[in-house]
Amino acid sequence: MKAKIIGTGSYVPPKIITNDDLSKIVDTSDEWIRSRTGIEERRVSDPQTATSDLAYFAAKRALLSSKTDPMSIDLILVATCSPDTLFPSVSCIIQDRLGAQNAAAMDLSAACSGFNFALATAASFIESGNYKNILVVGADTLTKYLDWTDRNTCILFGDGAGAVMLKATDEDCGVLSSYLKAKGEDGKFLVMPGGGSRDPEMKNKRFIRMEGKEVFKFAVKALEESVLEVLKLSGMDISDIDFVIPHQANIRIIDHVIKKFNLPKDKVYVNLQKYGNTSAASIPMALDEAVAGNKIKKGDIVVLSGFGAGLTYAANLVKWG
Ligand code: UT7
Question: How far, in Å, from the CA of 282 to the mean position of ligand 1?
Answer without folding.
Answer: 20
